[in-house]
Amino acid sequence: MRDIVLITNQDSKFIESPNFEAWMNERVLEAYLNDVLHTDIANLLKNVTEIASIDLFLRLSEELELERQGIGLTSGNAKIMSRLQFFLQQILEILPEGLQEPLRRKIEQ
How many domains are there within the chain? Predict the structure, then answer.
């Protein structure tokens, strides 16, 4: 039982240390890059409602805008921006025509 307390204390010390924030930021960036670079968007969209597709589109368009401004997680990485644009195009293609044009204008601004 004492070993468990020691591990918990060590974890607690790490979480409270200045190194934790840098370590956590690195893990978040790795997860983000993995998701953006390896997601099969077409397969994902097969099981998503129209409302969820629009929500995803809006979130990804915000993410793309942050990347364009150089303040996203990857600070404007061209490969990530290209992949986000691809995702947005794939989402547009599954939406009804009446929604496509207003949403397309949103990403072209």
Answer: 1
The answer to whether 89 touches 53, Cβ cutoff 8 Å, is no
Residues 42-99: tens digit of each pLDDT:
999 999 999 999 999 999 999 999 999 999 989 999 999 999 999 999 999 999 999 9
Range of the domain at 20: 2-108
Q: How far is Cα 109 from Cα 105, in angstroms, rounded to an integer?
A: 6
Tell me what pLDDT residue 17 has: 84
Global pTM? 0.78
Q: What is the radius of gyration, based on Cα positions, of the chain?
A: 19
**3-class SS letters over the chain:** CHHHHHHHHHHHHHHHCHHHHHHHHHHHHHHHHHHHHHCCHHHHHCCCCHHHHHHHHHHHHHHHHHHHCCCCCCCCCHHHHHHHHHHHHHHHHHCCHHHHHHHHHHHHC
